[in-house]
Write a structure and sequence with these properties.
Elements: E1 2-11, E2 14-24, E3 28-33, H1 40-47, E4 55-60, E5 63-64, H2 69-73, E6 76-79, H3 91-101, H4 109-118, H5 135-149, E7 153-157, H6 165-180, E8 184-188, H7 192-198, E9 201-206, E10 209-215, H8 216-221, H9 224-239
Parallel strand pairs: 3-8, 3-9, 6-7, 7-8
Antiparallel strand pairs: 1-2, 1-4, 4-5, 9-10
Helix pairs in contact: 3-5, 4-5, 5-6
The protein binds adenosine-5'-diphosphate and magnesium ion (MG).
Magnesium ion is lined by residues 40-41, 157.
Length: 240
């Protein structure tokens, strides 16, 4: 479970996140929409313990990320827009390196192969260097690394941006399987249609504020696209 409690993050005068309260339960996918600069990545950086909140608390599986960062990090996996992998390593080598870095021991060759298979990497790509990989293949490997960590909480920052429709759909299918395994999943995206297709709840952030949360039922009844565009337009007008 991910709990964000009264969390604010300010950079000088910039209020990147204001008093955010949000809990993501095991078996839930929460997607956060928001224009550039809304505070989505900052929320993730604080949740991962990469930067401290100005005030408030984030807990991963009940562990305070600021007070006990090393313990908290064991329970969270992170997939970014441009997953950082080693170009000169093969897919298999990257997977093994990051799996060991994540603290897992006693992983067999068969385990590595099974996870690469599961995320839909072609068999002939396992032993190829990352250099020539498409963005979709890199994202698949990124999620394979997250799966190997077997963390309860998975945070993804625009993981599907730049993916073609087929790769994007496959990626979301994987997330939905992980939800079935009781992971608590948070994803940011610019893509309203993907957000709506997969999420149990969708949030809208503008200028550091979580201004709206849609439940699954509301997503089916309300016009998410219109409401989102209204919020973003209002924000742009206020700034002008
Ligand atoms: N390290 C930083 N130093 C100063 N300002 C930052 C830093 N990181 C983010 N910001 C500012 O915080 C705000 C929110 O940014 P960010 O969380 O990256 O938004 P998003 O991911 O929603 O596009 C922006 O105004 C951004 O310029
Ligand atoms: Mg961002």
């Amino acid at each position: 479970m991910l709990e964000i409690i009264d969390m604010s993050k300010h950079y000088g005068d910039v209020h990147a996140v204001n008093n955010l309260n949000l809990t993501i339960q095991p078996g839930e996918i929460f997607t956060m929409l928001g224009a550039n600069g809304a505070g989505k990545t900052t929320t993730l950086m604080v949740s991962l313990g990469f930067t401290e909140p100005t005030s408030g608390t984030v807990k991963i599986c009940g562990i305070d990320v600021t007070k006990d960062p090393l313990e908290a990090k064991k329970h969270v996996a992170y997939v970014s827009e441009n997953v950082m992998l080693y170009g000169n390593f093969t897919a298999r080598q990257n997977l093994e390196f990051f799996t060991k870095l994540g603290g897992r021991k006693n992983v067999s060759d068969a385990d590595y192969e099974a996870v690469m298979e599961r995320v839909g990497l072609q068999r002939d790509a396992f032993q190829r260097r990352l250099k020539g990989f498409s963005k979709g293949m890199r994202q698949k490997l990124g999620i394979a690394i997250a799966i190997m960590k077997d963390a309860e909480v998975i945070l993804l920052d625009e993981p599907t941006s730049g993916l073609d429709p087929k790769s994007g759909a496959e990626f979301l299918q994987l997330l939905s399987e992980l939800r079935g395994e009781n992971k608590a999943i948070w994803m940011t995206t610019h893509d309203i249609f993907r957000a709506k297709a997969i999420a149990d709840r969708v949030g809208i952030m503008t200028e550091g504020n979580l201004v709206k949360i849609f439940t699954r039922e509301e997503l089916e009844q309300e016009d998410l696209e219109r409401i989102y565009v209204d919020y973003v337009t209002r924000e742009a007008e206020a700034a002008a």
